[in-house]
């Protein structure tokens, strides 16, 4: 799978006293953020730009009917605690090792695309600001109690975290498959819980994919995202740089 390179977005949270404190992370190239917003007008406006980016080779015949669909998806997520949701699309074309300087078309789908979904939510947790280790230990103990979970402790640059990997197999009915035969579909989920050191919340990063042939690449991708998580503005001390709060 062609690995995306470079940041595509940096997402601050809201700083309202009733809401989770800010959190920042970098979403690599290849992720397309859904039009999450507080009002229907904002969601409608963002959905139009979203479909033009997602279907960059399309036209109004595709964009116009697609925009309301994604605006409705964003509305369904309102009030669930999800502050970021994105689709990840990555070309499965392998880079030519004999021609390392050859141009790679990262979103060319004609040769195959590996897909995933990435969401970030803030969950209220009863903790003191300096109790992130205690919260992480409690999360690890709970998740480890399920034999179907592969739960592990993580030490991230921003602090302690707990990862939980699950694999599930679903049987697709014959009437829904191209071959007319039942198909087994294997899906994988990586969920990482990162306690806030700045307030009584835990950030939950979830990556879900049915493209399990590229599971190792998606694990690496999730690791790259997590290494950029910060609870302080990473550009605050950079001269001439500014980040606008969402």
UniProtKB/TrEMBL annotation:
It comes from the Bacteria. This is Uncharacterized protein.
């Amino acid at each position: 799978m062609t690995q995306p390179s470079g940041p595509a977005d940096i997402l601050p949270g809201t700083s309202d006293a009733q809401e989770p404190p800010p959190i920042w992370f970098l979403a690599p190239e290849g992720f397309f953020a859904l039009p999450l917003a507080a009002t229907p007008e904002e969601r409608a406006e963002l959905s139009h730009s979203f479909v033009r980016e997602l279907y960059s080779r399309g036209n109004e015949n595709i964009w116009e009917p697609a925009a309301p669909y994604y605006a409705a998806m964003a509305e369904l997520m309102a009030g669930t605690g999800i502050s970021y949701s994105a689709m990840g699309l990555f070309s499965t074309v392998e880079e030519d090792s004999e021609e390392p300087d050859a141009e790679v078309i990262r979103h060319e789908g004609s040769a195959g695309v590996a897909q995933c979904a990435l969401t970030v939510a803030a969950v209220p947790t009863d903790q003191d600001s300096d109790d992130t280790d205690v919260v992480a230990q409690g999360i690890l103990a709970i998740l480890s109690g399920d034999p179907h979970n592969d739960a592990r402790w993580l030490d991230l640059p921003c602090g302690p975290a707990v990862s939980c990997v699950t694999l599930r197999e679903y049987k697709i009915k014959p009437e829904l498959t191209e071959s007319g035969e039942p198909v087994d579909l294997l899906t994988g989920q990586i969920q990482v819980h990162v306690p806030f050191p700045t307030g009584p919340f835990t950030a939950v990063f979830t990556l879900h994919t049915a493209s399990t042939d590229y599971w190792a690449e998606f694990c690496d991708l999730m690791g790259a995202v997590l290494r950029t998580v910060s609870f302080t503005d990473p550009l605050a001390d950079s001269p001439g740089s500014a980040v606008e709060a969402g």
